[in-house]
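Whiteboard transcription, Tuesday session. T.W. wrote the C-alpha cells on the left side:
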C-alpha cells in the first residue's frame, strides 16, 4: 500500500528537491514535474509525481490527521 502525503518543496538543487513533510525533510527527484520552491508535491518512491495547490495539500493533510486521530482514540 502506498500513502500519498503532500510535502512542501523548500529547496531545489538541479534535479533534486528537498521536501518538508511536517518537519521531516526528504530529498526527491523532481524531473517528472515542473516544480519550484514553495510548491506542494506528492512523492512516491523518491520521485515527485504531482504538484498540487496549497489548498488541496492542506485539505489532504487535514483529512490524514482526522484518520490518525480517530485511529489513536479507538486504540484507547
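and on the right, the sequence the group agreed on:
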Amino acid at each position: 500500500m502506498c500513502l500519498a502525503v503532500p510535502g512542501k518543496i523548500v529547496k531545489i538543487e538541479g534535479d533534486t528537491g528537498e521536501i518538508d513533510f511536517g518537519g521531516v525533510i526528504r530529498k526527491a527527484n523532481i524531473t517528472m514535474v515542473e516544480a519550484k520552491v514553495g510548491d506542494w508535491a506528492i512523492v512516491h518512491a523518491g520521485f515527485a509525481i504531482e504538484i498540487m495547490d496549497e489548498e488541496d495539500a492542506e485539505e489532504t493533510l487535514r483529512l490524514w490527521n482526522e484518520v490518525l486521530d480517530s485511529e489513536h482514540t479507538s486504540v484507547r
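Someone added at the bottom: The first strand starts at residue 6 and ends at 13.
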